[in-house]
Amino acid sequence: MVICYRCTDMLQPPWRFAVLLAVLALPASSAAAQDAPTAQFDALQKEYDKASSAYMKKLEGAKGIALQGKIFREENPQPAFAERFLELAKKFPSDPIAFKSLTWVVETSEFGPTTEKPYSQAIDLLASKYADHKDVERLFERMVNSPFAASGRFLQAVFEKHPSTAVRGRAGFHWALYQKNYLATVNNLRTQADWAKNVELFVGPELVEQLKKTDAGRWTRCSSESTRTMR
Prior knowledge:
The protein is an all-alpha fold. It has two domains: about 40-130; about 135-230, no CATH class. It is about 80% helix and about 0% strand. It contains 13 helices and no strands. Helix 5 runs antiparallel to helix 6 and helix 10 (about 165-190) packs across helix 11.
């Protein structure tokens, strides 16, 4: 008697169908894992590390500060990746990866014509949505010497909004210190021509002029007010 293979398959144990279903489900599970916020962050980080390594080799091999400045302004991969990490933070605002992505932007940004915009956007999101985050202090030290005008907004927001009195106090201290150091940078650009010229090779003339035109009087008043508020 001849029995067709199709009929034979129907007589197989039910566990075979469970195995088949599990195998068929694997691609979907894999795709879901790749779409997870952490997986997207890790993939971006890996891509950036590769681009940054190539950029650093080119920068280190450049002869002369003028060429190094040109490479920094035109070929630094960080600003483009900062935009992508910003998008990731906006895509998952309730996930811990949002704060991590914004922190990445702040911690990897170097002052320059193409970094100022994404840095400022990251600061605004941090100040408006994450000023009360438990890990905000990890950014304090970096911002103390930050040449970005936006940095003060974050420190001020933490000083005003964080639920911990101790964290608010430390934020206020770093906010006042940031303002002091920012004004010192402005003064150096105005009074040290050679140093200002070297800075200009990296960040461009527009940013240097922008810093030089800082209203020192207004900044001094803000610094004094923040100091009085802390007392």
